[in-house]
Amino acid sequence: MHQLALDKSSYTLQQLRLVALMGEYLHLTVAQRIQARFPHTACYMNYGQTEASPRITFLPAAYFTVKEGCIGLPLPSLDVCIAGADGENVRDGEVGELW
């Protein structure tokens, strides 16, 4: 997708309605390039864990170019928490892992 965003060809891909990106951290500048190249396309960032499923959270399209590093909201059917090394929930602002 990043390569398409950098391509200066004349095609517009106006038929493209939705892009779902997954798999790794997306730098804000890359997200902004993608959105600028495809302004009529809703772009979503998704996060998942191999042992859980392909997707656990999603970042709504409205936040695609403004919430760098954000993994988004849990899917409606899931309950998630941020836990410390002891498996207990951490307080706001503390570092932990998605459970």
From TrEMBL:
Keywords, comma-separated and alphabetical: Ligase
Annotated GO MF terms: ligase activity
InterPro entries per UniProt: AMP-dep_synth/lig_dom, ANL_N_sf
SUPFAM superfamilies attached to this UniProt entry: Acetyl-CoA synthetase-like
Residue intervals of the AMP-dependent synthetase/ligase domain: 8-99
Source domain of life: Bacteria
One Pfam family hit: AMP-binding
Record's protein name: Acyl--CoA ligase
